[in-house]
């Protein structure tokens, strides 16, 4: 009984942030749909493409089971491995739209720092994955 | 606790923005509403089970035990455990934040909390299998390898960049979310 009550209270505590995130995600994904993303990543875009890929990954919130098959299709369509790896890594580690929620639990400093570091790391990881795939 | 209206003020602003978005950009209407419904469904499926598990964790697992396993004195063992705990999770990253708050309350060290968040964000095992199937084991495993390093580096970097006072404040806040 105590557990359920605690659960409900903890849930209601973060509900306002959740609702805000929900709306932000709906708007971001409406503009950035899969065909837009594939258009940008599908080209032979070099470093510029990696940058764009990582920025798109940072602001979108797509479940892995949707993102991975899409990424696989793009790779087969001739997209660069580094671009795809940058997209996948930032998609998972960086969450711009969920930052309000993260701040609620971790404070502004830690939340911003984590996303900033995760972004930088994602670029390194992308180059690494690209290097391994080319061996 | 803040008054209800103030707590939901950001939500009201976002809703107004969303309605404006629908009116100004009618081309995106169907897409935006569809995404909203899909994301809401995901959240409704993911969030309640997490919070119920959290409630149980909170009530059933004694603080002393958690502290021994993943507290400040737990060393590499605690870090590994935090990593595994995050990797066996399911669901999007935002599901990890409330779990982290309960772990803080139970005395898990801040470095281990950060490792847990890092693992949850990117080395989830079910997703790894899926990534391996879609993009090939070479892609998935090389990403996993560098992610393990990255998670540890990011955790240590945030821990050392954050003033002790800020960490203490976060723990106090987690304590109060009771």
Q: Count the E strands of chain A.
A: 0
Strand content of chain A: under 5%
- Average pLDDT of chain A, rounded to a whole number, is 83
Number of strands of chain B: 0
End-to-end CA span of chain B: 12 Å
The radius of gyration of chain B is 19 Å
The helix tally of chain B amounts to 10
Please give the oligomerization state of what you see. heterodimer
> What is the general shape of chain A?
elongated
CA-CA gap between termini of chain A: 57 Å
For this entry, give a set of tags:
heterodimer, A: 135 residues, mainly alpha, 0% strand, B: 178 residues, 2 domains
Question: What does this molecule look like?
Answer:
The complex is a heterodimer of chains A (135) and B (178). Chain A is mainly α. Chain A is built from six helices and no strands. Chain A has one domain. In chain A, helix 3 (46-59) packs parallel to helix 5 and helix 4 (64-76) runs antiparallel to helix 5 (81-93). The termini of chain A are far apart. Chain B is mainly alpha-helical. The termini of chain B are close together. At the A-B interface, helix 1, helix 4, helix 5 and helix 6 of A face helix 2, helix 3, helix 6, helix 7 and helix 8 of B.
Helices and strands, with pairings:
The complex is a heterodimer of chains A (135) and B (178).
Chain A: H1 2-31, H2 34-42, H3 46-59, H4 64-76, H5 81-93, H6 99-133
Helix pairs in contact in A: 3-5, 4-5, 5-6
Chain B: H1 4-7, H2 9-24, H3 29-60, H4 63-70, H5 75-87, H6 96-105, H7 110-122, H8 125-135, H9 137-161, H10 164-176
Helix pairs in contact in B: 5-7, 6-7, 6-10, 7-9, 8-9
């Amino acid at each position: 009984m105590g557990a359920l009550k605690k659960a409900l209270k903890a849930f209601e505590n973060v509900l306002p942030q959740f609702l805000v995130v929900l709306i932000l995600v709906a708007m971001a994904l409406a503009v950035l749909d899969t065909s837009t993303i594939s258009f940008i990543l599908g080209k032979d875009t070099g470093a510029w493409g990696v940058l764009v890929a990582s920025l798109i990954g940072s602001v979108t919130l797509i479940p892995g089971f949707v993102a991975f098959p899409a990424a696989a299709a793009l790779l087969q369509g001739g997209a660069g491995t580094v671009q795809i790896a940058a997209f996948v890594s930032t998609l998972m580690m960086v969450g711009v739209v969920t930052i309000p929620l993260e701040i609620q639990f971790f404070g502004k400093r830690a939340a911003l720092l984590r996303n900033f570091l995760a972004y930088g790391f994602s670029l390194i990881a992308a180059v690494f994955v690209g290097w391994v795939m080319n061996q | 606790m803040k008054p209800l209206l103030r707590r939901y003020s950001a939500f009201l602003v976002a809703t107004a923005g969303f309605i404006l978005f629908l009116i100004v950009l009618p081309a995106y209407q169907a897409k935006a509403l569809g995404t909203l419904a899909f994301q809401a469904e995901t959240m409704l499926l993911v969030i309640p089970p997490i919070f119920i598990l959290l409630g149980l964790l909170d009530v059933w697992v004694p603080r002393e035990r958690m502290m021994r396993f993943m507290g400040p004195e737990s060393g590499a063992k605690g870090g590994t455990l935090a990593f595994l705990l995050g990797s066996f999770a399911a669901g999007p990253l935002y599901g990890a934040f409330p779990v982290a708050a309960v772990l803080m309350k139970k005395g898990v060290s801040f470095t281990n909390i950060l490792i847990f968040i890092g693992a949850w964000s990117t080395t989830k095992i079910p997703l790894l299998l899926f990534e391996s199937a879609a993009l090939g084991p070479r892609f998935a495993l090389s990403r996993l390898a560098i992610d393990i390093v990255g998670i540890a580096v990011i955790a240590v970097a945030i821990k050392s960049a954050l003033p002790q006072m800020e960490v203490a404040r976060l723990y106090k806040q987690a304590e109060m979310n009771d």
